[in-house]
Design goal:
single chain; 79 residues; mainly alpha; elongated
Length: 79
């Protein structure tokens, strides 16, 4: 069970990186200010989610509920 919970947190961290990349691309390619609002909200949400997910990962580690996953080395280091 902890492994699934931790994997979901890692997926959340990966998703936030994708959200930030999309916000950057969308901002670069937008046609008007209203599109800029969408990408600004997306960027803000990604940063907030990332902060929460990183905090949760740290809590899991502190509680001994963190199992290193095969593909988490890069993600975990960024936490």
């Amino acid at each position: 069970m902890p492994r699934d919970a931790n994997e979901n947190l890692l997926r959340t961290l990966r998703m936030t990186r994708e959200m930030l990349a999309l916000a950057d691309e969308g901002d670069r390619d937008r046609l008007d200010d209203s599109c800029g609002i969408i990408y600004g909200i997306m960027r803000d949400a990604a940063y907030r989610l990332r902060k929460l997910a990183e905090s949760e990962c740290e809590q899991h580690r502190a509680a001994g509920k963190w199992e290193e996953l095969e593909d988490d080395s890069e993600t975990v280091r960024s936490v």
